[in-house]
Structures are given as structure tokens and as C-alpha cells.
Amino acid sequence: MRPTISIRGQKLKISDEMSKDCLSILYNTCVCTEGVTKRLAEKNDFVIFLFTLMTSKKTFLQTATLIEDILGVKKEMIRLDEVPNLSSLVSNFDQQQLANFCRILAVTISEMDTGNDDKHTLLAKNAQQKKSLSLGPSAAEINQAALLSIPGFVERLCKLATRKVSESTGTASFLQELEEWYTWLDNALVLDALMRVANEESEHNQASIVFPPPGASEENGLPHTSARTQLPQSMKIMHEIMYKLEVLYVLCVLLMGRQRNQVHRMIAEFKLIPGLNNLFDKLIWRKHSASALVLHGHNQNCDCSPVTAPFLSFTSSNPFCFRNKYLLLNNQELNELSAISLKANIPEVEAVLNTDRSLVCDGKRGLLTRLLQVMKKEPAESSFRFWQARAVESFLRGTTSYADQMFLLKRGLLEHILYCIVDSECKSRDVLQSYFDLLGELMKFNVDAFKRFNKYINTDAKFQVFLKQINSSLVDSNMLVRCVTLSLDRFENQVDMKVAEVLSECRLLAYISQVPTQMSFLFRLINIIHVQTLTQENVSCLNTSLVILMLARRKERLPLYLRLLQRMEHSKKYPGFLLNNFHNLLRFWQQHYLHKDKDSTCLENSSCISFSYWKETVSILLNPDRQSPSALVSYIEEPYMDIDRDFTEE
């Protein structure tokens, strides 16, 4: 493939057919012989050279397949800026090639995962970040920058992601046919090969391609028929769907990268969200047959259809972290937000006023509303429900907006969540966590939401089921506990008949207001986490415990709470074990948050407590003066003192 022999001063030209044969031999050797792929991956110059073979349509698929396999085992990430004429190469791809190229890009722009769960602890991440700062940008970040420098790259991806799926009848037989094909096709490259064969045969002899429709299988695993048929419409649609999956994944990664601000602006400009909204009703969100099909990478309890996958991929990366989340609505829904603010006599949200109406969704419903409708139709245990709840919650996350909350409350979201938590007695920890987080954001500081809660949870039996779900795993429910605690504090300081009525009637507020309840939560929140096991998932437990103590400090009750923690330690026959652990956790908190602007802003926005008050409270608790009534060390007896342990990782 790479001749060095010169004949009469000219390089020997190897035909595309010869290159295809070489690539096929290499690929099959990799498949059949252990270690060959790894040896090829070690030849960096060879891997770079393979990219140059993608200029030819005849060798594109074979090259892409081989590159994908090699990169899958390559220890060090390849750098795209070393590929000769990368910009020209990518710019000359047709839409089909570009979509398949995204399979390769997915490997080259994602940070490499070591596969070790310990490396996901915050200690390890902080150490890695310090190391990265000294080493400069990673290969993945360099590759992202290289792609974003290609003119029109993001625009083409947006067009691919939002390109209309071929029209279909939408009948049950069509939907089942589509699933039948998917039972043996889960690779976009396989689909490309089949589509290419169909196109070539059509061009050469104008004959119909011999291709089996879904149905009974032969020994080779392919559906069979005795009749010659056209390549099914369902196959063509599946081809398009697989493209969208790859393209959306690449966009997700770019949205979370260093150049995310630039990408956010571009996807808004190129109307990615309205485009996805227009595709929504034409895609399948549920399996329509009783087949036992399980998608690659999903478990038996997952209800996703093949068509759902691109949207799952997109929502899993928080699509609503777009700089203007209101692009998820249409003009009518934006007007509804304005009307809610006007009726409540509160200032309209500035971001709503500044939204470019030409970039929002069109049609009768925006994408957010469609996602809500889909989520309500899912079974309580569906993993799809988890991702959708995450997406809706991220719409609410940040500075609390009454209008945003009321927009969702008017669509029955709170009652639906409570039904899933209480009446269906959902057992899935992931789904429960996403619902508790969403419920907390939906109810925070909102009197109307607490009234709706009390109306739904209208018996002691229901309330006990709800408490059982909360107490079964505080790691999952602590964000709700935090939001209710913050809301209670605000309501108690308001003089309003409506608020007073809610305070006197709401079971949940009455329960959280009791000091024994708060102490029980505080004790367990501190006890279930340690510095060495802190992750992005459970660090919220530490921050929730801090919220409880900050509010106690406001009421000059911080010494009381610390004294009660000390008594609880003694009652468990382990004096010092909890407060020593809490002391270490707060030392780590200072290291982690005082150098990360983004995290500190999130804490401030979500709690409506200034970050300076967070820092002051932590400093007071860590005061080394044993005479201070608000210092942790004042409540740890000398024989049990263990507060200077080094928890840093090399």
C-alpha cells in the first residue's frame, strides 16, 4: 500500500483494488490472530498513513474498519494534527463518510479511561488535574481543537444529526421489520457495506438486489426469502439512525470539552435543537414488538428501541447545559414563561428576554415538553426514564427559577414523579436517584410545589412509603433532603399567609423541621462517606451536611448540633470516629472547592447561600482552638483525636 520503488522517476501507483485486498487481509489477520492488532497499533506512522487511504471511496470502508479496531487497542491516543492534510481530508468526505468517520473520532476525542474505579475518586481526579496542568493539553483536547479548526465541521455534524429520516408508513409491521433487521445488525460499517452493494448493483445492471426481508433465519443468521426484493426501506432508515448515533456522540464530547463555549454558540446557530425536535415524532421511542432484543451496551431491563439510542446518547451528556436552555422551548412556551412571571408579579427571567426567537423550536411543542411526554409513558423501572429525568433536572439546575418550575408543575410532573416513587414503589436505585434530584429542583423554594406535594401525599401511609424510599439510600436522596431543608429555612423567614398555611399542613416540612430528624440525616450523611471514597456522585452528601450546619449557624445553633453529634458518637460506642472523619472531609473540601470556580458557583447558585459563607463555616468548623464552641476539635476527646491524617494521593 505504501510503495517506495521508483520507476523512471515516478512512484509506483498501487490500484485501489490492490489496497482493498491488502486492507482485507490485514483486517482478517487481526481478527483471527491474537496480538496482530496490538502490533499494528504500536506502528504510529502506519496508523497515520491509514488515514490517507480514506481519500478514496473504494477503500474508505475497509480503512475505517481497520483504523477503528487498531485505535481500540492502542495504548496511547493518536494525534489528529499529525494526519497529513486533515482539514482537506475531512472536508472532502461526503455526508455518509463523515458520519462513519465519527466512529473513529469517538475514540480520538474522548479521554482514555483506565478502567479502574479508584481512578474515579475526587482525590485521584484532583491529582490528575494537577498533573495535566503541568503537562499541557491532553491528546483528546488537541484532537478536539484540530477538528474545530476545520471550516464547517460542526455545521455538517448538525445537518447530519437533524437530517430527516426517510418517510415511512409507521405501521406496526414496519416497526417490527425494523427491529428484525436490528437483531443482527448493530454496526454502522456493516450497514454501509450493504448500502454500497445495493447502490453498485443498481448502477451496473439496474437489477433488484437479492436481499432477504426480515423473517425466519437461515444457518448464517440472516433473514431469508426465496424472492428477490428491493433493499428494505427499514434497512435504509436503520442506516440513517446509526449515523445519528455516531454524530450525536461526537457532538456530546465536543460540548463538554475545552472549546465548549464555541461549540454551544455553533450548535445554537445551526439549529441543532429545533432539528432534533422536528425528528422526534418520526423516531421510535419504545419497542413495538415482544422480541427479546437487547441493544449492544444495554441491559435486559432497558426498553430502548434502536431509534432511541441517539437521543439517549445525547441526553446522557446533559444537552441542556447549552448556554441558553430556553432553545428547548417554542415561541408559545416562551410566552407562557413570561405570563407565569407576570402573574406572580416577579421579574421575567433575563435569559428568556434575551433568547433569539429565530433559533427556538417550532411546531406545537418544544423538545422539553416532548421529553416529558415520553418519560411519562415509560415503565417505572425503565433506564430510559433515568436519562430523561436527568435531562429535565438539568433544565432546572442552577439559579432557581419560579417560572421554570411552574412551567413543569402545570404539566403534572410532580404528581408523576410521586406516583413512580410512592405508588409504583420503584426499586431501581438509578431511577430513584434521578427522580429525587428532579423532585428537589422542582420543589425548592416553591410554595405551590409543596402544596401539590401535600395534596398528593395525603395519607400517613403514603408519607411513610415516601420516607422509606428516602431513607433507603441517602446517597440517592440527599439532594432532595437538601432542597427541602433550604426551602424550610426560607419559608420560616417569610411573612405570608400562603406560606404559613403550607408550613402548618405539609407533612414533609414538619418532618424536616424536627431537630432529631436533622441530626439523624446529618449523622448518616457524614458516616457514609470518607475522603478516600469521595466521588462526583456522593460528594453531594458532604455538601448537604454542610447546608444543615450552615443553617444551624445562622440560627446560632451550631454548637448544639456539634454537641448532639458527639452524643450520638458515644451512644454508638465509637467516640471520635464520626467527627474525625468529618474533620478530614472538610479539609479535603477546602482543597477541592477553593481552587475550582465552576464547582463553587454551582454550590452558590443551587443553595442561594454565598460561597463566602460556605468558606467561613468550614473555617470555623476546622478552627484548631479547642476553646471555640463551634470548632470540631472541641468535641473530640484527646485520646480519640485523629485529625492530621494525610489523605493526598501521589
Question: Into which percent range does the helicity of residues fall?
Answer: 55-70%
Structural class estimated from helices and strands: mainly alpha
Number of strands: 2
Oligomer: single chain
Count of helical regions: 33
How much of the sequence lies in strands comes to under 5%
Q: Give the CA-CA distance, first to last residue.
A: 46 Å
Poorly predicted segments:
114-119, 167-172, 180-186, 205-229, 286-307, 315-321
Radius of gyration: 29 Å
Please tell me what the overall shape is: globular
Major beta sheet summary: 2 strands, antiparallel
What is the spatial order of strands in the main beta sheet?
1-2
Mean pLDDT: 82
Pfam families: DUF3689
GO cellular component, one term: Cul4A-RING E3 ubiquitin ligase complex
Organism: Rhinopithecus bieti (Black snub-nosed monkey)
Protein name: Transient receptor potential cation channel subfamily C member 4 associated protein
Characterization of this structure:
- It is a single chain.
- With 650 residues, the protein is mostly helical.
- 61% of the residues lie in helices and 1% in strands.
- Among the domains are: 304-400, no CATH class; 412-513, no CATH class; 518-649.
- It contains 33 helices and 2 strands.
- It has a two-stranded antiparallel ribbon.
- The longest helix has 23 residues, at 233-255.
- One of its GO terms (cellular component) is Cul4A-RING E3 ubiquitin ligase complex.
- One of its GO terms (molecular function) is phosphatase binding.
